[in-house]
Design brief:
By secondary structure, the chain is mostly helical. It is built from six helices and no strands. Helix 1 runs antiparallel to helix 3 and helix 4 runs antiparallel to helix 6.
Length: 164
C-alpha cells in the first residue's frame, strides 16, 4: 500500500500533515453543514412552526421563573430568524459546498482552493446578520464564529507555500 504523504514518482510535492488534518476537519464540518442546511432548506416551514411554538413555551416558562435576560435575548434573536430560515439555510448550503470544494482543491495542493474556502467562510459569517440585523446576540455569535474561521484561514495560509 502506498503512503499518500510521501512524494510520488512524478515529483509532486508532499502534503504536510497540518494541511491534511485541516482538510479532513473541513470535509467533516462543511460536509455536515451542507447536508444539515439542505435538510433545513426542504423542511424550513415545518421546522419554523415547531420551533416557534417551543420557543414561546420556553419564553413563558422563563418569565414565570424569572429567567435571565441573556437567554431571553438569544431566543428573541432566534425567533427573528425563523421567517428567513429557508433563504439562510439555502445560502449557507451553497457556501458550505463552496468551502468543501476549496478544501478538496487544497487537499490536492491547489492554491485556488484557499481563495474559494476563505471567501465562502467569510461570507457565511454574514448570512444570518444580513437577514435579521446585527443585534447583540447576533454579534456575539458572529464573534465566536469569526474566531474559528480566522483560525482555520490562518492555519491554511501557513500551508500556501506547499500549493501550486
Amino acid at each position: 500500500m502506498e503512503n499518500p504523504f510521501e512524494e510520488n514518482q512524478a515529483g509532486q510535492a508532499k502534503r504536510p500533515t497540518l494541511l491534511t488534518v485541516l482538510c479532513i476537519l473541513t470535509f467533516i464540518g462543511s460536509g455536515f453543514g451542507a447536508l444539515s442546511d439542505l435538510r433545513t432548506f426542504f423542511t424550513a416551514d415545518a421546522v419554523a412552526d415547531a420551533t416557534a411554538m417551543q420557543m414561546e413555551q420556553s419564553m413563558d416558562a422563563m418569565e414565570q421563573l424569572g429567567g435571565s435576560s441573556f437567554f431571553s435575548e438569544l431566543m428573541a434573536a432566534s425567533q427573528e430568524a425563523l421567517p428567513y430560515l429557508k433563504p439562510i439555510s439555502g445560502i449557507n448550503c451553497l457556501l458550505a459546498l463552496l468551502s468543501l470544494f476549496g478544501a478538496i482543491c487544497m487537499f490536492r495542493l491547489r492554491k485556488v482552493g484557499f481563495y474559494f474556502y476563505t471567501g465562502a467562510q467569510l461570507l457565511m459569517l454574514f448570512v444570518t446578520p444580513a437577514f435579521i440585523g446585527f443585534g447583540g446576540t447576533v454579534m456575539m455569535t458572529l464573534a465566536v464564529g469569526a474566531v474559528f474561521t480566522l483560525l482555520f484561514i490562518i492555519l491554511y495560509s501557513l500551508n500556501l507555500k506547499y500549493m501550486k
